[in-house]
Design brief:
Layout: H1 2-8, E1 24-27, E2 30-33, H2 39-55, H3 59-72, H4 80-86, H5 90-99, H6 103-106, E3 125-132, E4 137-142, E5 153-163, E6 166-172, E7 185-191, E8 197-204, E9 211-212, E10 232-242, E11 255-262, E12 280-287, E13 291-293, E14 298-300, E15 315-318, E16 337-343, E17 346-351, H7 357-365
Domain Tubby C-terminal: 115-370
Region (Disordered): 25-49, 265-285
Pfam family, one: Tub
Length: 375
């Protein structure tokens, strides 16, 4: 229970309540505690009493409370009330899991596990990425308004490391824990020497038969095992490849993505109970070909006002026309993921079904950095 609460603490923004332990006598500026009861033991007993009191509610009443809170909190920051309800005790958590719908159905991100669930089908989910060049870190935020950038809701963070001839990225829930061996890591990514091929790894097994990385470098990216029923490690979930431009022809980068997405989209919102998806299929994406604008003398794509600065990093990913897949996205006009520059260190990231926020973020990270062989 304590582990589950700590994993969600960064998603709440509420003031802490101080409680005077039983047996404490406060006078002036001092507090004396009875020697018969240790403060730690007394605090633990009080927590158990509070938890038992809240868990006594009738299941119907409890579900109705969570349902009303969920309906009232349409977006962040009011949506933190839903997470606060799930943090009360185990029964409240189960009620929240049964009420809150995944992003595919409701178009909202609620729990950390929502970041690995497919995005909405009808409209893209708007996010943005901020880059810190000084320490090679990247921060993913959920847009809260129609503005290109606002304060945003923090979702994920990543940091780039140089390891020998390779470049590696750590992706984490915690913006302050971005080091090898991080206990809050949700995945990682590794590139080749030229920075043209990237392999994306998930820290938890996303589906049956996922390929487990067995190498010395995998031990540098430890992941805390949330549940004994969910195996932890480094499981390959996708590849991103940039095509070489040997002739140095004019044009933007050309990229190809193969991402493993679960066919069965039913997923639990509670990571401690989440089970690997039974089957998966490879989703093939490629960047949408831009057109040459004679008047502007540059390559152009229609980002519908979401990108304002021309950059070689900008791209739109679509599924090749005529491809058969279980998601029904074989349409070159439907943009699955778009990424573009709006400021010197700010970029928009819009994604939709069947990609998750984690997958979209990892793909966008591959665009950072110079690729001499591709430009």
């Amino acid at each position: 229970m304590a582990l589950w609460r700590r994993s969600y603490s960064s998603w709440l923004s509420c003031s802490s309540c101080s409680r005077s332990p039983a047996g404490a006598v406060v006078g002036g500026n001092e507090a004396k505690v009875s020697p018969e009861i240790a403060p730690e033991e007394d605090a633990g007993r009080q927590e158990e009493v509070d938890e038992e009191r809240w868990s006594r509610l009738l299941p119907e009443l409890l579900t109705e409370i969570v349902r009303r809170v969920d309906a009232r909190a349409d977006r962040w920051p009011p949506r933190r009330d839903v997470v606060a309800c799930a943090c009360v005790c185990r029964r409240w958590r189960d009620a929240a899991v049964s009420v809150v719908r995944p992003p595919l159905e409701c178009g909202r991100i609620t729990f950390p596990s929502s970041l690995k669930q497919p995005g909405p089908r009808d409209a893209p989910m708007h996010c943005f990425i901020r880059r810190n060049k000084n320490n090679s870190t990247f921060y993913l935020y959920l847009s809260l308004t129609q503005a290109l950038t606002d304060k945003g809701k923090f979702l994920l963070a990543a940091r780039r490391f140089r390891h020998g001839a390779h470049t590696e990225y750590i992706i984490s829930y915690d913006s302050d824990d971005l080091y090898p061996g991080s206990n809050s890591g949700v995945g990682k990514m590794r590139s080749d020497f030229l920075g043209t091929k990237f392999i994306i790894y998930d820290s938890q097994q996303p589906y049956d038969g996922a390929k487990l990385l067995k190498s010395r470098s995998s031990r540098r990216f430890a992941s805390k095992q949330i549940s004994p029923h969910v195996s932890g490690g480094s499981f390959e979930v996708g590849q991103v490849t940039y095509k070489f431009n040997f002739l140095k022809s004019r044009g933007p980068r050309r990229m190809q993505c193969n991402i493993q997405c679960p066919v069965d989209q039913a997923a639990a919102s509670d990571p401690s109970k989440e089970k690997p998806q039974s089957t998966s299929s490879s989703l093939s994406l490629r960047n949408k070909a831009p057109r040459w604008h004679e008047h502007l003398q540059c390559w152009c794509l229609n980002f519908h006002g979401r990108v304002t600065v021309a950059s070689v990093k900008n791209f739109q990913l679509v599924a090749p026309a005529g491809t058969s897949n279980p998601w029904g996205v074989g349409d070159e006009e439907t943009v699955i993921l778009q990424f573009g520059k709006i400021e010197d260190d700010a970029f928009t990231m819009d994604f939709r079904y069947p990609l998750s926020a984690f997958q979209a973020f990892a793909i966008c990270l591959t665009s950072f950095g110079t690729k001499l062989a591709c430009e």
